[in-house]
Design a protein that fits this description.
Blueprint lengths: L3 H5 L2 H12 L2 E2 H8 L3 H13 L3 E6 L2 E6 L5 H26 L31 H8 L3
Helix pairs in contact: 3-4
């Protein structure tokens, strides 16, 4: 029997799990949402069912598929150390974002915030720009 990792390595199966996370669905609805044939969808559902990731129930002529999250415990356990890694980084980001913003007067001289114009408030003109060309035409 394939592991949960092997089963969810297939993109259509992951998409099925995403759809079933929202709500249980009949195979026909899954087929339409996936853009697969009914036999193709049924093959993926069989693999997911055999791995214990979904369960099926009958309602008259329809088969409804539902997510079985307990089977994802193996993947959840494997991801645990990575969550700790990201939790620390997210905490650092939160601390950074919580720092008070610096006011323009506090910005060190020559920083990017002061490079918008010169200290006299005049805009820099590029050589060859409209003002430069106009000055040459008038002899200036």
């Amino acid at each position: 029997m394939p592991t949960a990792f092997e089963v969810i390595s297939e993109p259509h199966r992951r998409r099925i799990l995403d759809l079933l996370l929202e709500q249980p669905r009949p195979v026909g609805e899954l087929t339409g949402l996936l853009g697969l044939t009914q036999p193709g969808t049924s093959r993926h559902l069989r693999v997911l069912r055999e791995a214990g990731l979904v369960r099926v129930s009958r309602d008259a002529q329809r088969r409804w598929y539902e997510l079985q999250p307990a089977a994802l415990a193996e993947i959840d356990a494997w991801l645990q150390p990575y969550r700790r890694l990201w939790a620390g980084r997210l905490d650092e980001l939160e601390r950074h974002l919580d720092r008070p913003a610096r006011k323009p007067a506090e910005t060190p001289a020559g920083s990017a915030g002061e490079r918008k114009g010169s200290s006299t408030g005049r805009k820099r003109r590029r050589k060859g720009g409209p003002d430069h060309d106009a000055g040459q035409a008038s002899g200036g």
